[in-house]
């Protein structure tokens, strides 16, 4: 029997993020023996917001979480996109096409379908040995677990990926992002992503009558968090967002980066950000990890759970989205163009329905 193929899979997952929990939820529904280990001692609410598009929504519905998503999220009516003052308004086909949700709420949804005894907190892999078709894994707690498959779902700085091969250097976009959550929806069920110069402002309504606010700037750093004054400069909508900004906002900040796609080897596989961190310009980072988990669960049930089989099914789509997201970010910031004025003129020439159809085209590239 080839490595990675087993009629009765026994799966060890490192990382209880969105990709890892999605895989765990799939394995739970299919009656597969698994354990998920997470190095954090407690699962605290983290992150800000994200947009659930139809591909990710279909996966959540397949996990029985459709109603929970409706309750926790906010369906967008429209999205204003382009240069501030000259943006194009996109009207979505329905309120289910783009659903704003707090990342912590999505995490709680997925955690609710994983039994507590399957999740071990404060634990991580300290090493493993491969014996035939089995992996004898050692945890930092002193525990040992024998698995047919080891899954690295441990994020951007994946320890599993690093053990399989040296980590590729992150590719820096030259853009820095700040994210926070406003305790109000000053724009109602309408989102925006505007550009001005080399700066981008985004606002997405999410569940709980809140707004996910993000700010991306070229050539900035962690010390350059946006201020009320910065927001006020973006017209009436910016002033409304500034009025809702807490006195001492909690900004999450980081550079926008990606790295080459890697899937692991044999029965030691990578999914989500461990396999393919992407820039967030198309809002598909979490969705791609959920897609990986869905496809991998199916391969495991078919006795084809290898990194090579996952690569055959996933690589073209994932790498295409990664590349498109990178170039979408460069275009939004005028990088590679003679100036941001040309970018603004190109934005104004794009018919709104063409922008929406382009978004729909790559979202439709995956449905479970």
Automatic annotation (TrEMBL):
Entry cofactors: FAD
Regions annotated as coiled coil: none
One function term, GO molecular function aspect: FAD binding
Top-rank taxon, per record: Bacteria
Domain FAD-binding: 10-322
Keyword tags: FAD, Flavoprotein, Monooxygenase, Oxidoreductase
Protein name, entry field: 2-heptyl-3-hydroxy-4(1H)-quinolone synthase
